[in-house]
Specification:
- The protein is mainly α and about 280 residues long.
- It folds into two domains: about 180 residues, no CATH class; about 50 residues.
- Helices cover about 85% and strands about 0% of the residues.
- It starts with a helix and ends in a 9-residue tail after the last helix.
């Protein structure tokens, strides 16, 4: 009985446990909940064994009581039969035989009384065992329900913890993005590209200008050389002595005037035809 009371105390303690309070005090709720699930599962196994043993003891006591009850009834029937037989023999005038059956009836009644006492003495223990069994069954049912709640709570908290961890990671990534805005990096890179492009365009323009200048100088030099060659050819002929000189760098007006004077000198007097 003491063992049963101990089991009842453990079951009562476990069923009264405040899961939320335990979770609040735990440093690692998931580990604590896993441990609670294991403890509850082990306690439920022990409780089932205790309930099964208690039920077995109760059924054995009930069988013993039923046996004593049957024995009491049996001895009562034997006493009744012996008493009737004694009455028959006594009515038949056989007093000695009647006394013998009366003695047997008394013995049977004594046995009946003993069996009835055993039935009566067993009843309090049976009642107590029935109460314990009912308490154990109720406690076991509560523990199983508590275990289901505990598993659901654990699964819920584990899922919430994983979700929260994911949210923390996402928020951390977002914070890093906000701290180092990629668009600003792209803007700075674009500025660098534009500066390089501008530098390349400037160098290309500079190279183009230099090349044009070189070609212009070359063309000018070629034209000058040709002009000098033609000039030498002219000089080798009979150029009028009064022809005007054209200096380098002369303007178009000076050149036209020089050619007009040259034309006038080369025409005969009175010839007004155009050159």
């Amino acid at each position: 009985m003491a063992e049963k009371q101990t089991i009842l105390g453990r079951i009562s303690q476990l069923t009264r446990a405040n899961i939320n309070a335990l979770i609040d005090r735990a440093e690692d709720p998931q580990k604590m909940l896993d441990q609670l699930v294991r403890d509850y599962s082990n306690s439920i196994v022990e409780a089932r064994q205790a309930v099964a043993q208690s039920i077995g003891n109760l059924r054995m006591a009930e069988k013993d009581q039923a046996k004593y009850t049957a024995e009491a009834n049996d001895w009562g029937n034997k006493a009744l039969a012996a008493s009737r037989k004694a009455d028959e023999l006594r009515n038949a005038g056989d007093a000695a035989a009647a006394d013998k059956f009366d003695s047997l009836a008394k013995i049977a009644l004594t046995k009946q009384i003993t069996a009835e006492q055993q039935v009566s003495s067993a009843q309090p223990s049976i009642d107590s065992q029935r109460q314990v069994v009912e308490q154990l069954k109720t406690g076991l049912t509560q523990m199983e329900a508590k275990l289901g709640d505990l598993k659901s709570k654990r699964d819920e908290l584990v899922a919430r913890q994983r979700t929260a961890q994911s949210q923390v990671k996402v928020q951390s990534a977002l914070n890093q993005i906000n701290t180092t805005d990629p668009t600003s990096s792209l803007g700075r890179f674009e500025d660098r590209v534009r500066r390089v492009e501008a530098q390349a365009a400037g160098q290309a323009e500079l190279a183009g200008t230099s090349l044009e200048s070189q070609f212009a100088a070359l063309e000018s030099s070629s034209a000058q050389m040709e002009a000098e060659a033609r000039l030498a050819a002219l000089k080798s002929g009979n150029r009028p002595s009064g022809a005007p000189q054209i200096t380098a760098g002369a303007s178009d007006v000076d050149i036209d005037a020089a050619f007009a004077a040259l034309k006038a000198e080369s025409q005969p007097t009175g010839d007004t035809s155009s050159y």
